[in-house]
């Protein structure tokens, strides 16, 4: 397998609004990040992915961009950004920026022009259509509830928006739009940026004619997903982007690709012709999602997690490359979702970290994950800031007449604001995040769960992540080894091996609060196994033939020799 730095890297995602506030306005900013660079260095990560810091009216917290070449006032200036890049590079850390080009803000000058008249030179930068029998051009529904169309009185036509009404979709069929995007990418690359995380990049090519979706709610994503996910010209557009904006730079590119199948991921990331380096797929994020109404919740199942994960590991082996994540700014906190955020918070956070970092693919750490930060349960919808959450509350209570308690229970489990409460730096007022009034409330557990506590405790989750990252650097098998699932039918234990030439690791993970017994499959050797990492103390002489696992226990061994026949 081809060796590259971005396969060997660990990426840390910063969602700047909630990372660290340097000027007391209650909003995180670039100078705040600069003040924490040594913290990131101590953790050992290689790359920072910075969520959008561009000028934005913040309808969708920066994912609605009104100027791609300017920094949002609340976050600082271009000089601050340059100082951040310099500080990162001085520490050997690369920086990738969010690239949000499926849509812009409705305040972007292109859209301001576009809506002025049908013959405006920017009209075709966006997707405008006539209504159909006095109604929207088609029946597509937005990810943030409601129709994907907004009627604009000025010209008597509708514009398309897959996300909020203030995020009009760009028209990628227009070559001028594409050239604007590539020029903007080169502008950042020339400034020294090391790559891009590409927002919903598999939505940029829509099926011509924008046909009606046959049945409402027939997909996990959005009823009309088949008409804009991995559309007919996606590979062509991304191939062009690679040739015009990326090929002459040494970058990391990761495409956010909701709904992607493994076959599509291979098309996008295969080492010969794939336009991207890796993708974020969503199949594991769907395991506890009831399709249909927004914020749908169901229980997830370990067997399904194994099936999904194993299929992605096997289908991409040697043919493509994946990212590994359980958290980001759009998802609930992983320890609350897949672990146990009460009695076994520390153990399960370490177990989940072991899981992610031992899979093939580039691991992503979302800010606060290294502290085991948890979901939050604010009592009132007024405490929530996220447009998707607020719109969903309105739709569920008003259109579907669900009661407040029921809807809040869904929000407590699934709201994106679970991940967006401020970083918990210490036990002081507002967790050391701001000296002012935070833009969103903190999770009240910051007095116990915070970075100062973690840095003072050698057994903390933070140092466990640090150890995992060091292991990755020292053991190519963790990066390049082939994955093989063991015990596929076990409902509590997730075990697998990773093999590179004659180096073989055994990963044993207890995903439950009980104490199941792990039995080593007969085909694997038990002679002098070497323990690489574990989240509980393990005796040196312990046999691995049979292990009674403790709640959420995780162990990784290097196996030696061959099993006796
Ligand atoms: C995915 C981003 O991660 C999310 O935060 C945003 O709301 C949508 N794309 C729209 O840009």
Count of extended strands = 20
Q: Which CATH architecture of the largest domain?
A: Alpha-Beta Barrel
How many domains is the backbone divided into? Answer: 5
β-strand amount: 15-25%
| Biggest β-sheet description | 8 strands, parallel
How many helices? The count is 16
| CATH secondary-structure class of the largest domain | Alpha Beta
Task: Return residue spans where pLDDT drops below 50 for at least 5 consecutive residues.
Answer: 217-221
How far apart are the first and last residues' alpha carbons, in Å?
A: 31 Å
- What do we call the CATH topology of the largest domain? TIM Barrel
Helical proportion, percent range: 25-40%
CATH superfamily of the largest domain: Glycosidases
Supply the key terms:
565 residues, alpha/beta, TIM Barrel, Oligo-1,6-glucosidase, domain 2, 5 domains, eight-stranded parallel beta sheet, five-stranded antiparallel beta sheet, 16 helices, 20 strands, 27% helix, globular, binds 1-deoxynojirimycin
Structure report:
The chain is an alpha/beta fold. The protein folds into five domains: 1-100 and 322-373 and 421-474, Glycosidases (TIM Barrel, Alpha-Beta Barrel); 109-160, Oligo-1,6-glucosidase, Domain 2 (Oligo-1,6-glucosidase, domain 2, Alpha-Beta Complex); 176-321, TIM Barrel, CATH 3.20.20.80; 377-418, no CATH class; 479-560, Immunoglobulin-like. Helix content is 27%, strand content 16%. The longest helix is centred in the first third of the chain and has 17 residues, at 175-191. Bound molecules: 1-deoxynojirimycin. The site of 1-deoxynojirimycin has 9 residues, from loops. 1-deoxynojirimycin binds next to loops.
């Amino acid at each position: 397998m081809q060796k590259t730095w971005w396969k060997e890297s660990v990426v840390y995602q910063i969602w700047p609004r909630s990372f660290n506030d340097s000027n007391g306005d209650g909003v995180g900013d670039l100078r705040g990040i600069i003040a924490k660079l040594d913290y990131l260095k101590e953790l050992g990560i290689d790359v920072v992915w910075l969520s959008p810091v561009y000028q934005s009216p913040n309808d969708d917290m920066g994912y609605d961009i009104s100027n791609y070449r300017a920094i949002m006032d609340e976050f600082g200036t271009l000089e601050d950004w340059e100082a951040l890049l310099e500080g990162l590079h001085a520490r050997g850390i690369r920086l990738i920026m969010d690239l949000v080009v499926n849509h812009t803000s409705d305040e972007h000058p292109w859209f301001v022009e576009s809506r002025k008249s049908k013959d405006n030179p920017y009209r075709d930068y966006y997707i405008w259509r006539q209504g159909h029998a006095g109604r929207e051009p088609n029946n597509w529904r937005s990810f943030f509830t409601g129709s994907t169309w907004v009627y604009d009185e000025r010209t008597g036509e509708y514009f398309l928006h897959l996300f909020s009404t203030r995020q009009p979709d760009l028209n990628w069929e227009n070559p001028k739009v594409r050239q604007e995007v590539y020029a903007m990418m080169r502008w950042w690359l020339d400034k020294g940026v090391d790559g891009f995380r590409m927002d919903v990049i598999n939505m940029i090519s829509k099926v011509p004619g924008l046909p009606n979706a046959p049945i409402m709610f027939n997909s996990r994503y959005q009823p009309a997903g088949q008409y804009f996910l991995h559309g007919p010209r996606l590979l062509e557009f991304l191939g062009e982007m690679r040739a015009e904006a990326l090929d002459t730079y040494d970058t990391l590119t990761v495409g956010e690709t909701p709904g992607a199948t493994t076959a599509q991921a291979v098309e996008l990331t295969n080492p010969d012709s794939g336009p991207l380096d890796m993708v974020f797929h969503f199949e594991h994020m769907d395991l506890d999602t009831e399709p249909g109404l927004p914020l749908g919740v169901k229980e997830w199942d370990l067997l399904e997690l194994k099936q999904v994960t194993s299929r992605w590991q096997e289908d991409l082996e040697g043919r493509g490359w994946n990212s590994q994540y359980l958290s980001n700014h759009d998802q609930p906190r992983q320890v609350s979702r897949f672990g146990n955020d009460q009695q076994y918070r520390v153990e399960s956070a370490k177990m989940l970290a072991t899981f992610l970092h031992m899979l093939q693919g580039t691991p992503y750490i979302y800010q606060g994950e290294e502290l085991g930060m948890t979901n939050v349960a604010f009592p009132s919808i007024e405490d929530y800031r996220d447009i998707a959450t607020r719109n969903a509350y309105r739709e569920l209570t008003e259109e579907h007449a669900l009661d407040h308690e029921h809807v809040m229970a869904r929000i407590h489990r699934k709201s994106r604001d679970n991940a967006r409460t401020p970083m918990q730096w210490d036990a002081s007022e507002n967790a050391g995040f701001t000296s002012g009034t935070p833009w969103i409330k903190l999770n009240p557990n910051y007095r116990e769960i915070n970075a100062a506590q973690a840095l003072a405790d050698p057994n903390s989750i933070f140092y466990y992540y640090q150890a995992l990252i060091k292991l990755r650097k020292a053991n190519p098998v963790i990066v390049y080894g082939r994955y093989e699932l063991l015990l596929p039918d076990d409902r509590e234990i997730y075990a697998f091996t990773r093999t590179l030439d004659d180096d073989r690791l055994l990963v044993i993970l207890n995903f439950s609060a009980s104490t199941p017994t792990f039995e080593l499959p007969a085909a694997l050797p038990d002679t002098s196994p070497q323990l690489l990492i574990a989240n509980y103390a393990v005796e040196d002489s312990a046999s691995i033939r049979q292990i009674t696992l403790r709640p959420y226990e995780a162990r990784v061994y290097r196996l030696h020799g061959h099993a006796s026949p």
